Amino acid sequence: MLSHLTGLVTVTLVCLAIIIGLGLTREDRRQLQTSYAQLRNINLVAVDANKLSAQIAELFVAGDQDAEIREARDSLLSGLQRQRDLIREEHALAGEPDATWGGLDRVAQMEIKVQEIDQSRLLIQDHLQAGRRAEALQVFNTRIYHQLGQVLLELVEEATVRERAEVAEALASSSRLSERAVDLAIGLIVVVAVLGVANIVMMNRAILRPVSALYAGAEAVGRGDLTHVIDNPSPDELGNLSRRFNQMTGQIRDQRDSLLQAQSTLSQQVEERTRELRERSEALVASNDRLRSVDASRANFFADISHELRTPLTILRGQAEMAIRTPDADAATLQQVLSEIVRKTDQIGRLIDDLLFLARSESGSIMVNRTRVVLQDIVGDVLLDGQNMTMRPGVRIRPSQPSEPVEVRGDPDRLRQAVLIALDNAIRLAPADTTVSLELAQSQDHAHIRVRDQGPGFTGDELGSAFTRFYSARPSRPRSGRGLGLGLSIAKWIVDQHDGAIRIDSAPGRGAVVEITMPLARRAVA
What we know:
single chain; alpha+beta; ATP-binding; phosphoprotein; EC 2.7.13.3; nucleotide-binding
């Protein structure tokens, strides 16, 4: 407890030193920030003043500039008001909120000059309208150009000198603070060193000596001397441990005597134990086989997750990258991007909820909500998602669909998932500068969705096992690079639940066509 108390005191001293140092520097930082804000605002006032002068000068060239001049005047007055607020804030930080400094007087003079300049501008307009250009030019030079520049120069020089003095004072205060911090650190080091030495002495007397006695007792027991006794009458934990050690050696001594007495029956006990171990070994082998099967299922499960989350995550990343590449996007654009990201996040949540639906489908625990669905809406949503998928340069998605609505009865989210799986497989391996077609057509009583690409096609093994679950986890077979794992098996399950069919027409090197066929809704058939 004393050791812990020593550590707590040390940590408390360090924290207090840090808090004191931060408190001493806070006011200096705020003062420097206020000074910087005043200097920056003075520069903005200078820019607005020059702009006002330039707008008035435009009267000699462009004629009526009344709206632009009023805008420049209002901007200049707003900057002067901002300068007054900053000076008052500086007064408050200095603890003199009612003080009257020259900066406020200078700002007031500048505002008066702005009003006088505005009156002079009206006079210039009257001279120009009357054709007295020389008189207007004289008024501009004497009352606007020279007076505005002189007052602005005095304001900037006065504020610059004052703020430099404040910065120098703040830097000197920081220097003094650094010196005090060094002194505080030295004192803290001395205090920590003293506490550390005291802690070492205390640890040596209270812990190391009893531990050495326990170590000697353990060595004696290791040599077979069960009569060794540790003499430590202390009432603390180590004293209790020493007494428990003595009790333990006595118990071991008694157990050794009992073992010697049971030596005659040891062979029988060993044989019985061996039989039990053999039975347990066989049980462990069976358990190991079951664990191996569970491990294989776990690997397939994570393969499902990685495949099913890749497509929506790619879309989310595309949306985010589009927003990053457009730094000057307005709020409406960013709101649209965020809405799209939220929509895709909802889809990811549903994918996560349904990751095990292939296994659960055998028990009928997954429900397909059937409603009347217009397949043009499904194709439109899939096309929007496809634009955000990662693809090679020049890859284009070409849609084709009839003008009349093609309606089926089904779950729109499941159907969108099935079509998106086929489109993702096509886009992911489409060569550069090729076209991926997404076609919607209808025959007499069926709707047909075809995804056509110009990729590497399917090998013979892949085509035969395209809809086999976890087929992508079989590395021994030749592959074209297509992901033939969970995705197409999910699409087949979805199509089967809608009384449809899915097939693949492909050969190596000539692309592939994935066709989904579904019965039309009754009204569409009629």
